Structure prediction request, 778 residues.
Amino acid sequence: MRWTQRIRGAGTVAAAVALLGAALTASPTARAAAATAPDGRLTDLVNPFIGTQNEGNTYPGAAVPFGMVQFSPDTGHNTGYDYAQNHIRGFSLVHLSGVGCGLGGDLPVLPTTGDVTETDYAKYQAEFSHDDEQASPGYYKVGLGTGVEAELTATARTGVQRYTFPATDKANVLLNAGQSLHRTVSTKVEVLDNRTVRTAITGSGFCQDTKPYTVYTITRFDRPFTAYGTWDGSTVTSGAKTGTGGAYVRFDTTKDRTVEATTALSYVDAHGAGLNLRAEGGRSFDQVRDAARRAWEERLDDVRVQGGGDTLRRTFYSSLYRSFLAPNIGSDVDGRYTGWDQRIHRATGFTYYQNWSLWDTYRTQSQLLSLLAPREARDMAISVIRIDEESGWLPKWGYGTVETNIMTGDPVTPFLTNAYQQGLLKGWEERAYRALKKNADGVPPSDSPAVGREANKEYIADGFAPYIKGRPHAKPGDSDYDHGASATLEYALSDAMLAEMARDLGHDADAARYAARAQNYRKIFDPSTGFFRARDASGAFTGPADPAQSEGFHEGTSWQYQWLVPQDLPGMVSLIGGKQAADDRLDSFFAYDQLLQDPAKTAREVWVNGPYDYYNADKYNPQNEPDLIAPYTYLSTGQPWKTTDVVHAALTLFTDTPTGMTGNDDLGTMSAWNVLSSIGVFPVQPGYDTWGLSTPVFERVDLTLDRRYYPRGSLTITAPGTSDGDRYIQSARVDGSPYGRTYLTTDALRHMTSLAFTVGARPSAWGTAAEDGPPALN
Prediction:
């Protein structure tokens, strides 16, 4: 059973349900997909098309968990696939789930018939219908308007393709090295023999230009081709073995209509691509597809849920699937990888990973991986430390082998301190701390591609990052000076998390210094408005006094960044006038009275105004990162039931249609928010070990945990009655003993096996005492 897409999106929950019902009536395949699989396969509950429309920017193609290769169709959208489009330009090797700018899309491959006359994939693209399209974890299939059927699957470092052609002696496979989703700097194409094509593709970009990086590929077909050629620009040369644009290979399919090929990828060199091909190639398409499905089944099986309807389970497992798509393996099978110094290194004792959307993932996805994939999460953290040791600086937003400097603040600090707090850095603690201290106290030199804490000099001296409008960017990417107010809050959050790590490691003077800096959020509080506000280089508040205006804040407003003080919410609450004032402001922010009347409508019509509508609003924006922790603020004001109300309303934004993603997924960030909020355990102090509690949407959740990090090996969360709408926690028990706090620590999670909620139809006094909420740090 796989997903056959017939739904073109829905603007409201009711419309989504109506369209889904119509699709199930019309299509036997879709009808089968709507029900829980009789054999219990969790992969059958995953819909890879979720988020492929309305700028979710996900991809429906084939990948294995954390694989180097994401083999997926490109339809002309700048990030790859858009469900609203109906032509496929090619099936390319590299995609990142939910990125906001074009990158990857390397080596788009497309089967065609007839003479090869066009070299621009926008001209030779093939029409397709969603009626002829299927996808499931590790597998994608589509029927093209040319009469060719294409199927894709993957291993960690290879993409495997199978094409079924019409009966013809001119069945072609086009390998377009010269076009991608980013700027292509240079390409080289070689036909090595009558089964093999090799390429080297150097590209640059992601929102802005970056330093170039190179991807090496080698494609091996399962049978000899009858003819071949290459092209340079628009000039196609039959029989040529080398080119700079691409290559075509031809087969006679008058009798045997099927062609299979395996393409291996390496970020090191052509030799690495060959090693990856020999290690992971050599199997039939069906064998690879079955292995990919088993890998996903094993990964998803670590979370078993009961209760809720089929739609809720499909949405949940689809989010869980997307949470495991990145970061991605960056080392070849021999352990070699290209470091950020552009030199070749070897990973010994760990797997090297790459692709770091840290401003996004430090809030949700890194914690989910520390819980459900701690061995991989450890290697990911070690990989980030190696970036510092090899290039001289920690990353901010890293793609492949280069820094992009996209987004602001200091997201790498809570990413690594989270790894430390989750016990993932055994043996690496001091190496990590040295890198973090250098990052927290300095600024990268001019010859480093990194910007780091760009405004650190002023922040350390004055306690805030200044907002300097129109300041020229010294390096490609975003600048903290463009968003001084939000950068200040991000720096202060990171200082708080680093202070805790420093104290644990015995660096007491550093701990005191960082703890003091963690209070710098107060430096941008404007008493005249009662909100945070940007300050200029002289220290004067600048920009509009209206907190619903965005000047000085990155992708948000003061209303939205108001709650990004997880290190000291009690102090924040006091600053704005106490719990009653904070509750009033939170209620206004979430449109709480409207929410109680109609949660889904409030989420759709009050909170959400468009996938990139980040600015100039005074309401909660659940589809972007600055607000991800905000619903859990009520835990610190003594009204935990409101956290559940807001979280459950926000969860209605996730649906099982192509429009069912709230904004960009950002390498699993939004998906991880959905997963964690659905099971009722959420990281409310990112970079530390505090997990806030709310009512799960399932009656029972069984987590299988790695005994190396969680000695008990499992955790069961129960909330009987939540499926019937009883969402308010009346009491909680941990391993049978009463539990009154609204948070847990990682240490508690390691040594418990059950968290049992009793829920009811009305709020209760549970978790409302002053000592019940998450404590301030430092």
